[in-house]
Design goal:
By secondary structure, the chain is of the alpha+beta class. It is built from five helices and five strands, in the order ααβαβαββαβ.
Length: 164
């Protein structure tokens, strides 16, 4: 799975729309994620409206790149689930799958955390009119990358501890 070793956080994008087929592949990858008790708490907002992208870019000090992305995926989780304490973990797995699939299909993306900061979560909910039974988790701006660089090698053997 080479996407793991190639994927980088992309914050600058070409001014080019993403094909519906690629968006569906991103969503299929997201929903293939593991989840606690198979609860699958995820829901997604695909945002292409330029005004909404601009508003999302102002929802966090780190979300500025969203303004110039052709699309952003806002990951959300349902509050009324059997194992709510695992929702953030489930949605994190989802976000990682989206990032890996984006690399696989020639797109770039970056994970912008919204949760657990309540004012950011509230701002995103307000911008997208997300219903009360859902919580906003992350913004993932996505598009054709306008920047290219090698992934850093983050492997550190001394962080591995064998038992047994």
């Amino acid at each position: 799975m080479n996407a793991i070793f190639k994927r980088i956080s992309v914050r600058t994008f070409e001014n080019r729309a993403i094909e519906d087929e690629k968006i569906e592949l991103l969503m299929r990858a997201a929903m293939a994620s593991p989840s606690a008790g198979n609860q699958q708490p995820w829901e997604f907002y695909i945002v292409t409206d330029k005004d909404k992208l601009m508003q999302l870019s102002e929802s966090s000090p780190f979300a500025g790149c969203t303004e110039h992305a052709p699309m952003a995926i806002v990951t959300c989780y349902r509050k009324e689930i059997r194992l709510p304490e695992y929702a953030n973990i489930d949605i994190s797995a989802c976000a990682e799958n989206i990032l890996l699939e984006a690399e696989e299909v020639g797109l770039g993306a970056v994970w912008l955390g919204i949760a657990p900061i309540k004012e950011r979560m509230k701002a995103v909910k307000h911008i997208l009119d997300i219903p009360s039974h859902l919580e906003a988790f992350a913004i993932i701006p996505c598009g054709y990358p306008a920047e290219f660089r090698e992934q850093q090698d983050r492997f550190e053997k001394e962080r591995i501890h064998y038992v047994g």
